[in-house]
């Protein structure tokens, strides 16, 4: 016997947290009867339906953490026939798409899913979680430039929020530096524009983290599917709840 919400989540219908909401709102039936009580246990022979559709017939939701290489479009298609993110998921039957975007020449972490509810929550302007980038820049930023970045600079006619900024390393011979930035906004080209504003153009950019997720164990072009627990944690973040 297993808890009903766990059975629904394990079937790939949705996250465990969302399964609990489905149960509470009367969308789930077990052997033809509506079940609203969380923690209800069912055996392997129970006929479970969500919105009248058996769970084994439901579209399976999947969310992947993908290490986007440079030179790949954050889209499902491209009119110039350039490589797109979904080319890396050709073996999946589900219609996957990226959540948000990374520039063509930017590498790093991006989420790919067919969970429309999660995607909508995460792309909403209210969704503000830490995103950490590493930027190789021309020149070596001064303490004054770093202070300006931390306090916020003006781009797109608005001032950016306070940011965490540090120099990861620097190359005096080549006059370049690797600068780390952690921001929680998502304006177009924000990191590049911030660094250009203080006089240090970006040569190469990589997004290394989104909140608790990072690229550990992945090489460019590789992906891993998020666990139920990670998806639930993303839902809580997107809904503004503590994790």
UniProtKB/TrEMBL annotation:
Read off the PROSITE patterns from this record.
PSI_RSU, S4
Look at the named UniProt entry and state the broad enzyme category this protein falls under.
isomerase
User: What is the superkingdom listed in this entry's lineage?
Assistant: Bacteria
Q: Which residues form the RNA-binding S4 domain?
A: 2-59
Keywords annotated in UniProt: Isomerase, RNA-binding
Q: Which Pfam families match?
A: PseudoU_synth_2 (PF00849), S4 (PF01479)
Q: Does the keyword Zinc apply?
A: no
Q: What is its EC number?
A: 5.4.99.-
Instruction: Tell me which stretches of the chain form a coiled coil.
Output: none
**Gene Ontology MF: a single term:** isomerase activity
Entries under NCBIfam families matching the protein: pseudouridine synthase
The family classification in the record reads:
Belongs to the pseudouridine synthase RsuA family.
Q: Which named protein is this?
A: Pseudouridine synthase
